Amino acid sequence: MGKEKDLIQRSLVVLKPDAVQRGIVGEILQRFERVGLKIVGMKMVMPDETLYRKHYEDIGQMITRRGEEAFKYNVQYMMTGPVIAMVLEGVEAVPLVRKIVGPTEPKSAEMGTIRGDYSHMSFGYSNAKGIGVPNLVHASGSLEEANKEIFLWFNENELYDYSDLNEKFTR
Predict the structure, then answer these.
(1) Is residue 1's pLDDT more than 50?
(2) Which residues belong to the active site?
(3) How many degrees, rounded to 5, is the angle at CA 93 between CA 52 and CA 168?
């Protein structure tokens, strides 16, 4: 039983300003629910630059990986509107969410993934235009990252433990 319980994970998902402003939040959310992921926390927020710095650099090391300019463009893009932050729970939720979302660069995302179906932009184009990549969704990259991100975005009292009908078939 202990090993089985360890496979139940939580992942942070942030529906970015382009997802909210395009009115496709429901379609995106439906993809996660259809595979049996359970929403255990969700809220609409308008984070400030401090939270984004903690999220993208302190945890995600974006400046280290892609440079200060890419980080700046991304934060500017993220601050163009509210986002919907949520915590999803399920069997191996972190890799499952990443699979559903697709690669960070929309141009590289396969059809059938969220990014492949709803966006198309390359890092080269966004860098040339001096803009962040509108790629709809943030998804935790690892279990360790998910655990840090969840508690950056949510307080313990904003997360819920409950049973849903999907668990009968997905756990």
Answers:
(1) no
(2) 138
(3) 140
Q: Are 54 and 152 in contact (CB under 8 A)?
A: yes
Residues 6+ apart with CB under 8 A from 20: 44, 81, 82, 83, 84
Cβ-proximal residues to 24 (8 Å cutoff; 6+ apart), any chain: 118, 136
Q: For the chain, where are the alpha helices, taking DSSP H only?
A: 2-6, 17-22, 25-34, 49-53, 62-66, 68-78, 93-101, 114-118, 123-129, 143-153, 167-170
User: If you count DSSP H runs as helices and E runs as strands, how many of each does the chain have, helices first?
Assistant: 11, 4
Tokens of 136: 């709809």
Give the separation between CA 163 and CA 28, rounded to whole angstroms.
Answer: 22
CA distance 20 to 46: 12
**Domain residue spans of the chain:** 26-153
Rounded Cα distance, 87 and 109, in Å: 23
Cα–Cα distance, 9 to 27 (Å, whole number): 23
Whole-structure pTM value: 0.91
In CATH, the architecture of 26-153 is 2-Layer Sandwich (3.30)
Rounded Cα distance between 65 and 91, Å, is 29
Report, as an integer, the average pLDDT of 51-68: 84
